[in-house]
Design goal:
heterodimer, A: about 270 residues, alpha/beta, L-arginine/glycine Amidinotransferase, Chain A, 8 helices, about 25% helix, B: about 425 residues, Alpha-Beta Plaits, conserved putative lor/sdh protein from methanococcus maripaludis s2 fold, six-stranded parallel sheet, disordered N terminus
Amino acid sequence: MQRQPRILMCPPDYYGIEYEINPWMNRARGSSRERARQQWQQLRDTLVDLGVVVELLQPQEGLPDLVFTANAGLIHGNRFFSSHFRHEERARESPHFDSWFAERGFSVEHLPEEMYFEGAGDALFCGPALFAGYRIRSDIQGHQYLGGLLRVQVLPLELINAYFYHLDTCFCPLAPGEALWYPEAFDAYGRRVIENHIPRLIAANEAEARCFGCNAVVVGKTVVLNAGCTNLASDLESMGYTTRSVELDEFIKSGGSAKCLTLRLDGEEAAQWT
Amino acid sequence: MAHNATGKQGFVEEVEIQGHIIDSLILPKVLDEILTHGGSYVIKDIRIGQRQTDASHARIEVRADNGDKLREILDAIHDHGAAPLALRDCQTVAADMDGAFPEQFYSTTNYRTQVRLSGEWIDVEDQEMDCGILVDTEESAARCVPMTEVRLGDRIVVGRDGLRVFPAETAARSNLFEFMASPVSSEKPKGVTVREIAAAMKRTKDAGEKILAVLGPAIVHTGSVEHICKLIRGGYLNVLFAGNALATHDIEQALFNTSLGISLDRGLPMEEGHEHHLRAINTIRRIGGIRRAVERGSLKSGIMYECIRHEIPFLLAGSIRDDGPLPEVVTDVLEAQRRMREMIHGVGFCLMMATMLHSIATGNLLPAWVKVACVDINPATVTKLTDRGSIQTVGVVTDAEPFLRALVAELEREK
């Protein structure tokens, strides 16, 4: 029987650009809360339409980025490894995520204090291996530590472009052995590691990568991605995927898109947990 | 002399890295990073995981020419997960009595050793095996001391924290001679070995380091005195260690032209020749010593004569079977050891010939980076030397005279 996908989202009631912690953010430009609300709702509706059970986290005043639930932590089975954010502004989100997961019966675990780790934003399973982005937000040590705990293969990938500060902005596993990516976000070693381990890759061009085309949500054989990524959409379709595009430019102003706004609770489509 | 080793080895720190460092290319990336920043590395240990989920582990020694460059490299590779081994400063305990180490003292090797003081790695000076390490925290200095020289209150290193030793294998790449890897054998072509030893002596001399010779009486018995005199005159022998016997028979030859009563010209026993060595000792004792005998003109040739004339420092260490002995012989063995320790400063090469006792005594004092050539008719001498830890030794099993004749010819040819 097909499992029913479950995704955690947080309504953008208090979303806004109140600080600048990545090159996308610009307080002077600001964002429209109303537009954000409409776009978020459209994403949610799309997911529900695809059969996803969307669970909600209570928004909190003063935590504008709580909408980006992908960064809450990493889920593996019934274990929730809570993020240790590099920036103080986001570290304040963790208690809210922790209590939400604890209340739902997850075992909430923390990495050692000295290791920065930004959850599913920087750690994505593709098959049995955990692909892990490091350097800009997460530390390699945190991922190695997790790999030891979970006894899974961890493949750290150095992120070298500040615009693609989380792994999920430039790499999206679709299924075991298949992924979307933006090669220029990685150094030569990282590119080789991805090419060696993932036989079927769809590369985004610069314009679509900057349109957050790789920040996509995969539900079964459907890929939900930001509007305007037409090349990626046609490449995906030729590989047998259906695509749904959603206008999410209000969130790109903060450096996030579809994937950042969601946290898959039952394991990503591409993840093979043993 | 620790500066010898430091100058060639540079600044060093050990790091470790673990995880799926092979599949993820993190290990090659870290190694490339070290090279790109102008450093070098030695992989000290590596364990590769057997299954895909198994982590691998590597311990890497990172080297750079200077401290700043090393720090820059360590900062760069730290971001990729290579972290310095969790280390503490070395632990010391105050000596609770004269002449003995505290319990749990660290027993030294002859390899280059460093101790960590206030987070900094310091070279241990006067490196010598079978000693303890005395730390002067005010001066940020450490040196090897034998137990007899310990004084109440000296800070002595205990345990193994904050200590690191650089075995010869890793040093070999930059500064040990190739031939040093050869084991002892009587069946090796001597010509090649002699050439290599001559080249090593020449390099030592050119580098401004000293050549130490440790000689036994067979040098005289086999008629090799003139070869040694040529080495002294040519500047290839700068310090001499020997016993009463070498000096006695050398002087016997100078005074009577015999060695243990055997004519050096004819190879036959001389009438009353067995008394010659005792008469030689007696003569020198009556004059008041070897130096005075040379100054008075009573001693006009031989190894000891050349040593006095060329101001070559020598140490004659006594033993229980000595006749006489000659006035210069140091009969207190601890005092002899102490003086030998002082005299090996600056030695870069050591030639040991025809003496087991003095060779082993000297081998005990030399740091592992001083190259040693041991020439003896008895293979056991070389074997014993290496078995006792002087592994930097190349052995030549041969009679002293033909070896020295070839060596002198080679050195003269190389001029």
